[in-house]
Amino acid sequence: MPKFTKKQLAMIALILDDEEKKFNRTKKTWVRKMFTARKFVGEFHTLFKELEDEEISFYKYFRMSQSQFYELLTKIQTKIQKQNTTFREAISPKEKLMVCLR
Description:
Layout: H1 6-27, H2 33-36, H3 38-41, H4 43-53, H5 55-62, H6 66-80, H7 93-101
């Protein structure tokens, strides 16, 4: 059985610790990086604000007026709304409706 010096044992321990951290880091990833930036670059958060300002563009995009959209949203909101958890933020009913209609 080979004998190691204290320095060699310390180096082995550091290497094993690094490997363990790498393994645990990938294991804990719940949400992909592209989805974490959804609030900044996602279609809902960028496009919807612009569509609300222009009624004609809103109608062309959704094939319904804003009043119809919000009426539909109020009818189904309680059925499709989820609560936020400690792990991730729920998708809003407005965003779900936009994706469904599009």
